[in-house]
Specification:
Layout lengths: L2 H7 L1 H28 L5 H23 L7 H18 L2
Helix pairs in contact: 2-3, 3-4
Length: 93
């Protein structure tokens, strides 16, 4: 079985692949609303924040499902701090 075929048989991975664009476009819609109605200046850093958030949430959920007791992976532990920094930078001019 090829790698592509194995992706379509794993429902958790398939759900994560569908969730990422949904999270991205939802965050983008919220950002556009904030920009139009509230006058919040959002730019490229907000786009990067949305992409990072859309990548982080499905990965975090997949990791939690596969390893419910293990939360000490280096990448999964430092990614939220990157999201916080990007979120703070997105709101600044």
């Amino acid at each position: 079985m090829t790698a592509l075929a194995s992706i379509f048989h794993d429902t958790r991975l398939l759900a994560a692949l569908w969730a990422a664009p949904f999270i991205y476009f939802t965050a983008l819609a919220v950002g556009r609303w904030l920009k139009r109605k509230q006058g919040v200046p959002l730019g490229l850093m907000f786009q990067i924040f949305c992409v990072s958030l859309a990548a982080y949430v499905p990965l975090r959920v997949l990791h939690a499902v596969e390893h419910p007791q293990v939360w000490h992976g280096e990448g999964i532990r430092t990614f939220p701090s990157v999201l916080i920094v990007l979120g703070l930078a997105a709101g600044k001019k």
